[in-house]
Amino acid sequence: MTRRALVVRHTGRAEAVAASEVVLTELAGAGIEPVLAAHDTDPADLPSFDLAVVLGGDGTILRATELTRRAGAPMLGVNLGRFGFLAEIEPDDVAGAVRRLAAGDYEVEERFTVDLTLTSQDGHQTHGWALNEASLEKSEPSRMLDVGIEVDDHRLERFGCDGVIVATPTGSTAHAFSGGGPVVWPDVAGMIVVPLAAHALFSRPLVVGPSSVVTILVLEDSATPGVLTCDGHRTIPVAAGDRIDVRGSDRPVRLARLSPAPFTTRLAHKYELSVEGWRRDNGGAADAEPEKTAPKTEHAKTGPEGTAPEETAL
């Protein structure tokens, strides 16, 4: 049986096109038939494939998951973008990485995804899914979106806001992070609910279990309709009175990992965290204890012209 590998590249980046040629050569040398596709290729037009290599930034990788998720094929991401949190390798490692992928020398990391259903007032349903997040935002910038939040059909809160994000642990370092949500390790199954600029006394991010259903209701008296965006590019218009149900999916996205680096290391590296700390002097020692001063007493002498003595601000 012929082994095939899907190759998805960002066609607008010359370095991605050049790197893809290396990928195609290495795959052919390993006896694997490459299948070249664009990020907007219809999955129904593709033959079956066993592996995938994606060359681009996080946006390209997120678009490529639409092709790989249904097939269940592990995906190797090559970072040719600015951040590349989902990518596994940098461009200078492409040839060796593809050889390892072809030889089966990798681990598979499964990432939790969510399924969502938008139900309009007339009962029509639209279905979608997300690896990073489903983001509901207001359509009219000058207006406030009025929403109700429910968990497992129990009302939680209603407020006006700019929007609401329901993110996965993978997406906790993306839009939800910018909205003030927590960073959640990817091996945690669950959903993070992050209100955006909510006009409410209680609008804290919430972490909900994977078996729960998060519901966002766009209230009928909302001053603006909304737009629902999945992973930053699949959009669905949302009218007043519509209902969005988000639940954990049983179909993950599978990532090919070549390095045993834990998520903690990736997080510190990508965000350039100060793992060595910053409270050090030139010799590397901890800050010296501040010099102690004598306490003031009731009998302190007055200064010139009978004024109180000068005090040092602490």
Poorly predicted parts: 293-314
Separation, N- and C-terminal Cα atoms: 77 Å
What count of structural domains?
Answer: 2
**Whole-angstrom Rg:** 26 Å
* Name of the CATH class of the largest domain: Mainly Beta
Please give the share of residues in helix. Answer: 10-25%
Task: Write the H/E string, N to C.
Answer: EHEEHEHEEEEEEEHEEEEEEEH
DSSP E strands, number: 18
CATH architecture of the largest domain: Sandwich
Count of discrete alpha- or pi-helical segments spanning 4 or more residues? 5
CATH superfamily of the largest domain: Probable inorganic polyphosphate/atp-NAD kinase, domain 2
* Structural class by sheet pairing and helices: alpha+beta
- The coarse silhouette is globular
Please describe what this structure looks like.
- The protein has 314 residues and is an alpha+beta fold.
- The chain has two domains: 4-112 and 253-270, Probable inorganic polyphosphate/atp-NAD kinase, domain 1 (Rossmann fold, 3-Layer(aba) Sandwich), CATH 3.40.50; 114-248, Probable inorganic polyphosphate/atp-NAD kinase, domain 2 (Tumour Suppressor Smad4, Sandwich).
- Helix content is 17%, strand content 32%.
- It is built from five helices and 18 strands.
- It has helices at residues 14-29, 58-71, 94-103, 175-178, 263-270, and strands at residues 4-9, 33-37, 51-56, 75-79, 107-111, 114-119, 125-130, 133-138, 145-151, 154-161, 163-167, 191-196, 206-208, 213-218, 226-230, 234-238, 243-248, 253-257.
- A six-stranded antiparallel beta sheet has the order 7-6-17-14-9-10, with no helix packed on it. A six-stranded antiparallel beta sheet has the order 13-12-11-8-15-16, with no helix packed on it.
- α2 (58-71) links the parallel β3 and β4 (75-79).
- α1 runs parallel beside α3.
- The longest helix is centred in the first third of the chain and has 16 residues, at 14-29.
- The chain is globular, with a radius of gyration of 26 Å.
- Mean pLDDT is 89; it is low at 293-314.
